[in-house]
# Entry
Amino acid sequence: MNLAFRLLKNLFSGLLALLILFEEWGWEPLQRALAWVGRLPGLRWLEARIRALPPYAALALFLLPTAMLLPVKLLALWLIGQGKMWAGTLVILGAKLVGTAIVARLFALTQPALMQLAWFARLFTRWVSWKEALLAQVRASWPWRLGRVMKRRWKQRLRRFMT
# Structure
């Protein structure tokens, strides 16, 4: 039982680490992309209103994309159930990408208000500490190190090929 539990825990940690790595990879670039879009005249006004929200309104707005993406994810599952595996997978990936971009931008806009909530600030600090510890484990693992070496070698080969 103990071995099965450890294997399950390691599998879960690995899958969670992959999800967190995706979020880490996409969070900043996607947030910057939406910030660029947010410079459009009508959206500047909207972003200013979002920044001015009180803490609990900011929290509700921050959680809204999760609720809005549920029907999209259900559509993806329905497509998969209809035998349209690629279409369902693309819908899930698209929803993940768009959802990450929107949540990242909303968090950038609402973070000051959210951090006024003591319980949110406490949970956020714990989350960041836990996430950093998990990412440190992943980055110390042999697959990660091997991937970094391979990436470096491919970049060197590409540079040599281009010159």
About this structure: The helical segments are 2-37, 41-51, 55-81, 85-114, 118-140, 142-162. The chain is about 90% helix and 0% strand. The mean pLDDT is 84. The longest helix spans residues 2-37.
